[in-house]
Amino acid sequence: MKTLKIAIQKSGRLNEKSVELLKNCGLNFENYKSSLISPVSNFPLEILFLRDDDIPEYVQDGIADLGIVGENVIQETEVKVSYLQRLGFGKCSLKIAVPNNTGIESIGQLNGRSIATTYPVILGKFLKEQNIVADIRTISGSVEISPGLGLSDAICDLVSTGGTLKSNGLKPFADVMSSEAVLIGRAGSENEDLIQELIQRIQSVLRAKETKYVVLNVERDNLQAVIALLPGVKSPSVVPLAEEGWVAVHTVIPERDFWDRISQLKQAGAQGIVVMPIEKIIL
Ligand SMILES: Nc1ncnc2c1ncn2[C@@H]1O[C@H](COP(=O)(O)OP(=O)(O)OP(=O)(O)O)[C@@H](O)[C@H]1O
Ligand SMILES: O=P(O)(O)OC[C@H]1O[C@H](OP(=O)(O)OP(=O)(O)O)[C@H](O)[C@@H]1O
Ligand SMILES: [Mg+2]
């Protein structure tokens, strides 16, 4: 049988979450710091540990069948790959930032200025769309210190908490793109069946992350009111309790409005609410 290859980041921001996702899919593999390639013992898959910049090209060229990488890297490398699944981690934004005390107040004032970045392709396209002609200074890291060193008037870099900008006396000025980790592949792969199997496993893990399993007790008289508040995968399971007139309701609740729903359920008569994490939801 053919063995698939998936490329993930060797070390850095996406490594841990990528490994965790694959492990949660039930894949068994060793994850030594020195491993560059690791076979999966219970699925026809090998994991390649790479610099994230190389991942889109490896997938485009068919060296890897799949990859996990930030959208920012895909856009910057301008490769042709298919987005198979958004993964919900590595969320950040690419922003232009300027020193706190700068005279630059509007986007038009970037004309004729210099902007340091590790993303010259994305920034170049953005400036063109905005009809700005600026001097893009491509550097390979520590972008935030360049205005302080007199290397540039502004920067364009990834931001999540904003802590790095703040500690370097910079403020966000314009949003260029938002990004998260995505699963990428190549159109027309000959291993479509195996790829689909892996995507379904990944989706079942992602679905489970967004929901909680809830068991609650309620008097039969209040059962309909409680059921009306439950979304559930299908209708909830209702199990009679030893105590006459009471039932246990088993259901699945989305994480996003969890606490609102729990307080509504309590008001409707739910008691003894037990909440459990879900490992996988297979549709
Ligand atoms: N502050 C952040 N918060 C959340 N996600 C981030 C942040 N910074 C970067 N990312 C995402 O994580 C990806 C990897 O970031 P990292 O800093 O590890 O890259 P790198 O230094 O280029 O790593 P490599 O050594 O693999 O080339 C980025 O391309 C981006 O998609
Ligand atoms: O808004 P914040 O939460 O402060 O995050 C932003 C920082 O994170 C990224 O760098 P990272 O820490 O990954 O280091 P790197 O420059 O070595 O890639 C990015 O290049 C910023 O410097
Ligand atoms: Mg990189």
UniProtKB/TrEMBL annotation:
Catalyzed reactions per annotation: 1-(5-phospho-beta-D-ribosyl)-ATP + diphosphate = 5-phospho-alpha-D-ribose 1-diphosphate + ATP
GO cellular component: cytoplasm
Subcellular locations according to the entry: Cytoplasm
Enzyme class: transferase
Co-factor requirement: Mg(2+)
Pfam families according to UniProt: HisG, HisG_C
Pathway info: Amino-acid biosynthesis; L-histidine biosynthesis; L-histidine from 5-phospho-alpha-D-ribose 1-diphosphate: step 1/9
EC assignment: 2.4.2.17
GO BP term, pick one: L-histidine biosynthetic process
HAMAP family in UniProt: HisG_Long (MF_00079)
Family designation: Belongs to the ATP phosphoribosyltransferase family. Long subfamily.
Role noted for this protein: Catalyzes the condensation of ATP and 5-phosphoribose 1-diphosphate to form N'-(5'-phosphoribosyl)-ATP (PR-ATP). Has a crucial role in the pathway because the rate of histidine biosynthesis seems to be controlled primarily by regulation of HisG enzymatic activity.
Protein name from the UniProt record: ATP phosphoribosyltransferase
Lineage, broadest ranks: Bacteria, Pseudomonadati, Bacteroidota, Sphingobacteriia, Sphingobacteriales
Name of the gene this protein is made from: hisG
